[in-house]
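Below sits the subject:
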Amino acid sequence: MQQVILYIQPQLRNTTTTQDFVRVDLMEEDLISLTQVIQDVQDIDKVFTDYSKTFNLPASKLNNKIFKYWYNPDVDGFDNQIMANAKIELNHFDFKTGKIQLEEVVMKNGVPSLYKITFFGNTISLKELFKDDNLDDLTWLDNFNHNATYTNIKDGLSTGLDFTVDSVTYTDAIIYPLIAHSNPFTYSSTNYGHPDPSTQYNLAVTGAAIANRGVFPEDLKPAIPIKNIIKAIEQQYNLTIKTGEFFDSVSMDGLYMWLNRNVGKMASAGTWTGDSDAYGCTGTTCSTLTDSTSVFGYFDLTSGVYLYKVAPSFYDVTTIKLQITPASGFENVEYSFDIIRVVNNESFTSSINQTGTQEISVQLGGVGGYNIEHIHFYQPNGTQFVGRVNSSEAFSFQAKFTIDRTVIDDLEFGASPKVFNGIFTSTSSSLSVSGGLVTITNQIPKMKVFDFLKGLFKMFNLTTFLDFNNQLVVKTLDNYYAGGQTQDITQYVKTDENTVGKTIKFKNINFQYPEAKTILAEEFRNNNNTRFGSLQYESEISEGSDYTIESPFSHMMFERLTDIYESGSPSVLKTRTSFVQAGVSINTDLKSVVEKPLIFYGVPNDIPLNSRRINFAFNERPADGSLPVISAGDTAYILYTYFTPSNSSTLGFTTSAPYIPSTTPPPYNINFGSEINSYTLTDYGGNNNSLFQLYYQNYITRVFNKRTRLFKFSAVLPLKVLLTLTLDDLIVIGTRAYTINKMSTKLQSGETSFELLNEPTWKQY
């Protein structure tokens, strides 16, 4: 019999301080059993499985002390809302690490009798760690905030934006892929100058750029690498994900999430801060108070400041008001505004989430004696006050400052006080908030952190566990099993009695993405009676139910644009395929839509052919659909390289002349099934390196193999086997080899029940 020892490390309430590991008392008569599973053949959709076990602890003096008499709500101490670190030893050898959760206390006659706890494997406890946190809670992502300037968007589209965080350079950390959020792009190599406003979305150029044609900055939204979201999770939760495993693999290179949180164009207007231009004052017109004899302060509006000057003895009351009036057409735009002291960016007063005309004010000082708070605001060189307006979308408005100051000079004792009063009301020309900061956590789709990771695990058939260095190891299931050892346990198995059953109860397995709303995906579904990118694995089993594995991410069908051009004399309209591929997030009603978070490959289109060049318009697209007014100094660019959205890791063209579709499919594809390559228009005949082919096929085909069975054995394992046996090991019993589907072990006795899948092709040498 092994001695089972359980230790826990309680966390003190309302602090991050932890105690040392403490050994708890166990029930002498209870045998603690532990069930372990990685990929259950009966439920292959599960991820983060590992193990869990609920068992009872006696309400001993020691355990009462450890759990801080939790059953008494008047006593502060053990926090059952937080999982405590725990570990199990067998005969003082490390066996398992994990977490414990205090579930309940059984009371008898008002006295505690039992503590019911659950021991979790560390991978299961990830869900507890993440709780209900969303991706926009990952504050590390804001290291990639950037201004939505035309230059940044152009560079994000053409070359990607690089960032350095903690001395680490993240290349292409932000891209602006060629995905339209509201209006589909077109390509017409000969009618690029047609006056029809609809041709604004024409990307084609010839020998020169056209400033009012092509892709406009506001047509695009950014995307962020999946790898950087993984990094943000590590940072947020103090996790260490082992390097060199799946998340560092080539298949993850170039995989992005589109930041399409809201319908329509990106809301990234940012901030306006009032300066001299806002006041509408020139020269000395607005430079002083109405009472020009005031010596205690003055307005210096030529530099946009309101200055206080120090006086030997006075009382001062100043009221500062800021009124915001939206321009026509912007009455319903939501904004926030405040009055701030520039020297330390201190906000005196603010108002958030407002629409229409609004006003805020702040009063400084007081009459009847020196005001300590007031004196604090005085600066020898004056104090500068400005207004600030924040909006998440383009916002035009007028700002009006009103400053009412009364100064009472009480310098001459016994004399009547001298009163100075001045009121200043500013004017402003049209102001705007635009081209502001793109805050990643404001743009990333709403999705729980746990659901994000679970979605990746489903797509790529991943599994995870903690290694001996407390690092989270993430592997594909195939690589996980490939890393195990071969252990012959024949001598410990009760071979005189076992059962043999069928492996799986499902007739078919459906691999799919959520039903898409975008126009191309819906047309595909209507024409093919299936979802784009899906796959149904059909077995030879005559009965059974269907099993569905569905990704939580949306899946877009991208399109290589058709070139509409004129040729001959007289001119004849013709069509051909361009070398430009794009996406569009609109439905069949041609309305912009937001679906589940979109994952795709951002592939640089660098094929050196003139017909894949696109035009970037370095100006704003008119909201009314009219042609843009091109002012002097506006510039347009021809882009020879840009990020193409794709479901494949490469476009599938040869990398040298004559630049034709390659007969070899791209190495990675995020369709579950075999779809025609949207760029090369090539059908690879079911061999296109899809998600199923690369990550599921080996496991699924083995499970459905007509020679595969689910074996159940009983064994009594000695301590040396219990301490070394892991779920990726290949188990040999007699002349057959098996992988472990599930195992349950009574820790004290070593009695173990196995569910095993035989390896049909294994041979003993």
